[in-house]
Amino acid sequence: MKFQEKLIAVQLRKRGWSYKKILTKIKVAKSTLSLWLRDVELTFQQKEKLLKGREKSRYAGAKARQRQRIEKTEKIINVAKEEAKILFKNPLFSSGLMLYWAEGAKSNESIKFSNSDPIMIKFMMKWFRDICNVPEKKIRIAVHMHELHCRKDIEQYWSKITNIPLKQFQKTYIKPTSLKHRKNILYNGTCSVVIADRDLFRKIQGWRLGFIGKFNIKDVPVA
Fold first, then answer.
1. Is residue 129 part of a domain?
2. pLDDT, tens digit (0-9, with 9 covering 90-100), for 127-139
């Protein structure tokens, strides 16, 4: 039985059939089929046809995923726009949204808020926790400091401010400087709150659109 199946598989392969198509006719493991057909040589035209078929399939798959991503993004943004109409009266929601709009990351679907003011960082941590409902484990902290202000306790300082453990800190970036003396010995660098959540980024975009819509202000398209 297996020998007969092998003969059929070889014949189909010589006709230029792909492994996937052959497996619809012969029910064997792909590893077995590969073993049977490893010595079967295809013509240049057959190889070109199979390559074009795979490229067409990959393109179709990529387009389908793109459509799904666009539809999902539009849905999240539209729902968030309606949410903004309700959350508008919450001072924490409105002020946090405005701060993020002014200081937060707005590209690459990444969430990042950076500042050197500890009170502002505390406020935004409350916004991310209470308004955005971000799980603690998804929050990362990145510290940037100048070489002159480098101290061992700076990461611990921001850990206390954000209430995020040091194990969730990214590698601290230390910027070289040509200066010889510190101008502010109390400076603690810049703290960045980083959250890897594309859906939340899209939701914040929807909130922003819903918020400015309350004032009949239209969003300006990027040139």
1. yes
2. 999 999 999 999 9
Q: Mind listing the pLDDT tens digit for each residue in 12-49?
A: 888 888 888 888 888 888 888 888 888 888 888 888 88
Residue 97, domain member (yes or no): yes
Which of 199, 89, 205, 79 lies closest to 135 in space, CA to CA?
199
The residue segments making up the domain with residue 112 are 90-213
CA distances from 121 to 103, 112, 114, 144 (A): 11, 11, 8, 14
* Rounded distance between C-alpha atoms, residue 31 and residue 29, angstroms: 5
- Count other Cβ atoms within 10 Å, centred on residue 35: 12
125 class by beta-carbon count within 10 Å (0-12 exposed, 13-18 middle, 19+ buried): buried
Burial of residue 56 (number of CB atoms within 10 Å: 0-12, 13-18, 19+):
exposed
Is pLDDT above 80 for 222? no
Q: Which residue has the higher pLDDT, 57 or 28?
A: 28
Instruction: List the end-to-end C-alpha distance of the chain, in Å, as a whole number.
Output: 66
Q: How many domains does the chain have?
A: 1
19 assigned to some structural domain: no
pTM equals: 0.69
Cβ–Cβ < 8 Å for 165, 213: no
